[in-house]
Write a structure and sequence with these properties.
single chain, alpha/beta, eight-stranded parallel beta barrel, 11 helices, 16% strand, globular
Length: 288
């Protein structure tokens, strides 16, 4: 296994989006500001999508305007689902990365974006052009990368073919996403290995959802394949509300950090004291 320098994205956006009771804007600002002090490489802080689809994140623009990024090295990432959202997001100077959900599963792509995969790829070409023109980097979340709940065909070759298309479009990074928490150590190795040959042309990472009891093994499996980019959410809260009724939470960031520390000493960038304070704030923020 080559020496891996882990790149960690904290995902409060994913943690918040499925919560029904609206979290006050000022409370979101306070929590996100504390996360900017920790030393994460990136913060997936909000989304520019229809308020009808994700009411919880309807105040993303207001939250962003109030965040102080003058004393942090953490990049900001916003999720978008269509051209309108991208056009709004790229106008924000504080945003570094634009995230877009794409699936190798036709059923879920319709359910999540009301478009086919083919239609989404056409739209993604325009999105990539807009990102380049505005000095933003495009991150594609390849959902259902480890299986789907619909009984549809799934295999690693589908991931490989989609990756080739994303490279042609000009995608900066691809995150293999376990939307419903079905990945195991074997499927993680197979899925990552199926596109590892493309690492020189596109950054590859994983956005895994998991039962906390199996989360560490999944992180280790990802690390052993050579994965450098990891998404997590403090306390493991979150999940995709478009996927199914019962949300499967994100891998807790606490587990990601603890697991990676066993294999890598490169964690000076994480301020552990600030991280512990953020974890305690998260317990109050999410009423845990």
């Amino acid at each position: 296994m080559r020496n891996i320098i882990p790149y960690i994205t904290e995902c409060p956006r994913d943690a918040m989006q499925g919560i029904q009771e609206f979290i006050p804007t000022d409370k979101k600002i306070s929590y996100l500001q504390s996360l900017l002090d920790v030393g994460f490489d990136c913060l997936d802080f909000g989304s520019f999508v229809s308020p009808k689809a994700i009411p919880q994140l309807s105040d993303t623009s207001d939250v962003l305007d109030s965040l102080d990024v003058s004393n942090t090295n953490t990049s900001l990432l916003a999720i978008t689902a269509n051209l309108r959202g991208v056009e709004e997001a790229v106008e924000k100077d504080k945003i570094d990365f634009i995230g877009f959900p794409l699936s190798i599963n036709e059923t879920f792509q319709y359910r999540n974006t009301n478009k086919s995969i083919a239609q989404s790829l056409v739209e993604l070409e325009s999105i990539a052009h807009i990102c380049r023109s505005n000095d933003k980097k495009l991150v594609v979340y390849l959902s259902m990368a480890f299986g789907n709940p619909y009984g549809d065909v799934h295999n690693p070759d589908m991931i490989n073919e989609m990756t080739k298309k994303l490279i042609e479009i000009g995608t900066h990074r691809i995150m293999l996403s376990d939307t419903i928490g079905v990945a195991d150590t074997v499927s993680i190795e197979k899925s990552y290995s199926s596109i590892k040959e493309h690492e020189d042309n596109i950054a590859i990472g994983m956005h895994l959802h998991s039962d906390p009891n199996t989360a560490s093994n999944k992180v280790l499996a990802a690390l052993e394949t050579g994965c450098q980019y990891y998404d997590g959410a403090i306390l493991g809260i979150g999940g995709c509300p478009m996927a199914k009724d019962e949300l499967v939470g994100n891998i807790p960031t606490e587990i990601i950090i603890a697991t990676l520390k066993k294999k890598s000493a490169i964690f000076e960038k994480i301020n552990e004291e600030k991280f512990e304070l953020a974890v305690e704030q998260a317990r109050s923020f999410f009423n845990k």
